[in-house]
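Job type: complex structure
Entries:
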Amino acid sequence: MTKFIDLTLNGISTGAIYAAVALALVLIWRATRILNFAQGAMLMVTTFIASGVINSTGSYPLGVGVALLSGFVLGAVVERVLIRRIESAPPLNAVIVTLGLYTLLVAIAGMIWGNSPRAFPAAFSLRGYNVGGTTLLFTPNDTFIVLVVLGVALLLALLFRATSLGLQMRAAAFAAEVARLLGVRVGRMFTVGWGLAAVVGALAGVLVAPSVFLGPNSFDAILISGFVAAVLGGLDSPPGAVVGGIVLGLALSYVAGYEGSALVPLAALVILIVVLMIRPTGLFSAARERRV
Amino acid sequence: MLAVEDLITEYGPVRAVDRVSLRVAAGSVTAVLGANGAGKTSLLRTITGLVRATSGVVTFAGEDITALAVEDIVRRGLAHVPEGRGVIAELTVAENLRLGGLWRGRDAAPVEEMYELFPPLRERCNQPASRLSGGERQMLSIGRALMGRPQALLLDEPSLGLAPRLVAQIMGMVRRLADSFGLAVLLVEQNARSALSIADRGVVLNLGRVVADQDSSQLAADERLRHAYLGF
Amino acid sequence: MRRSALLRQSTLVRSLGLVVVCGLVLLVLSENITDYRNTQLAEGAYFFAVLAGLTLLAGLSGQISLGQGALMAVGAYTVALLVGNEQWSLVPALAAAVVVTLIVGIPVGAVASRLRGPYLAGATLAFAVGLPALADKFPSLFGGENGLTINPPTPPSWLGSSFSLERWEAWICCAGALIVLFALYNLIHSGVGRSMRAVRDDEIAASLCGLRVGRTRAVAFIISAGCAGLGGGLLAEVNQLAQPGAFPLQLSLFLLAGVVLGGLGSLAGAVWGAALLVFLPNWTNDLSGSFSLSGNVSHNLPLAIYGVALIGAMVVWPTGIQGGIRTLTALIRARLSARRRLRVGAAPEPSGPPSSVPPSADGSG
């Protein structure tokens, strides 16, 4: 029984990370109809930057702050310099460009920081909660992770629903040409969208880094899980991304617990295929049929 | 207010707009007429900047706007109600309206004003725009364009898909807007009869070229022209 | 009827001629280069096998797959198991590797044929990472992290005792590459190839013409899987080893880079891509050596170059090396004909390179 509770709690906290990555992917997809295969690499770079800042200043909050800021800059620059040029090209080009960006970022990270994984500090204690004599696998840091991700999701929802900027971003995402005709600076909205998505990704990076150890390829699996979670919830739906993340986290946690961690990537693949075959638009998407 | 001089727009080897010139004064309605494929929509899209002109000049309120970006042209007070209404289905009626005035900031019209002009919108104000009927969408689209208190209004086939009674209502509304707000209205229409009924001037396009540019009553009286290009 | 039969025959004849010419060239080449170069030749040949299948899939059929690395692993492990554990001889084992990957390709292709663009890329990405993990799940069968080893193939005695192992391996791999060349050349120029192109360019129109869209795409996938399986089997032969570490996600990305940079959809592009995959790590090593770059930089340099090249290719030059060659030859041809016309006295035709085209596929050259 304890094992089940442990796995469930663990699933929720890893699910929160998947939710954050999925949220980043969904934001970019909604805005520019591009699946950002470089998302994992981008958050890897910002986490390395955070690590550097933490090591030299000893301040965790400063490191995280710098990570978020550099995330925004990175996302905005990538959109402005790279994505802007291929927005009107066939979708195949965008896939290759983001894959190329992923490759380049991993290489640069390897050049600057080396290929051997290193440790990354956690915000809070990594000792499990003690409940009635048994130590759970759930730690205060995990609580922090879940709360932060939920908080960010709520903030984003508020941004999109209640602010003018959010309205403009939604308009630019849903109907770019019409938005232009209403004076919305659509290009700027795309840049902000990418920057925002990168910030969410950067957050996921610093939250998950303590458990995966920081290296150029440490976040590849997270990208795939985030992608599966996003598809599960519906690529058009930010709340779907959050729910998809939690559901996936739970599912993979049970698989790892009862079948061994080697099967986890395969389980993610199976879930992905099942969703794409049965309900391609995801659990939460509006009924509108999108070509998958 | 709005002037177009020798405008040429080409899509590759096809010349959609061939040396078109026209003028629209403030407070007047100019109808652009012609059959399908005559270049009417291309003309509007070139004026607003959605399509780059190959050559020619577009002047608005004394300023040369030919090379400006769409957003900048719109922010100078030129509103474009696109073909098919362009209502953003995922947003609510209220959000659509609010969106139209955002660029104007504090000087934008209050949403309440649009509800006065178009009462059916008030009932549906929090519903997604996808639920609106054709006529309501047209009202929303026009209202949205008016939120920014524009000086010129470009309308692309507002009568498309609407019942005759609604068409008459919309046309009447457009005339009143031109008169009361002093708007320079450029109205592209296939329904020549209803367009001419409210227009001051009529410009007829055929294969991208202007074949007639006259006072609307003269145009309506010219039987040869009407039969040849306008279908009635 | 006669016309199409003749056309069919001529493709067959052309492809046979191509194979014979290439075979002779490779033979002569292999005789006159060092053992080290022969190993590189072998590497290039098995990469060509995989890339040819991938360029068919991505260029001709318009489906981006990031899972070719995993399919290579399937082929490699099949050969390793049959040759190593079951004492099969090489050729039947390679044939079996192709058959096994074809079979694996059937369900994969069935699923993939229903996915488009980024969804397909994401799903094959998950496949590339998920499948090799199976080796860890069944360590007794697959040898876990260390993988399975096989004995090197011995050259047959009738070639003489001085025939080096490396040259024999090069011969085997080149034979495999030539088979792939022959098969794919004929496929590209056949009705099946045309169907693939039609489906890639406009699905709705193609289905209205009676083409089975799903089946056409699945067939492309299955064929590319078979090619990857052959390539993987040859890789296992040459390296005498099949292990999960040899098929990381990066390999699939390198393969995609090779195909894109070489020229999507063209077999000649697959040749350039294979050459790139073989020589780039060496060039960057030499570069790092002469500039005495640090270990980290030199280790990651090939990867960085691929990244930049992929991005650059899509932004600046989407048609790859083969596309560049085509543009160049068209330019030269136009100049020559213009000069000819001038001499004759007629007005010169407007010359200039054709505008950069999206990945086209004609398998020419």
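Summary: The two ends of chain C are 27 Å apart (CA to CA). Residues 18 and 182 of chain C are 8 Å apart (CA to CA).
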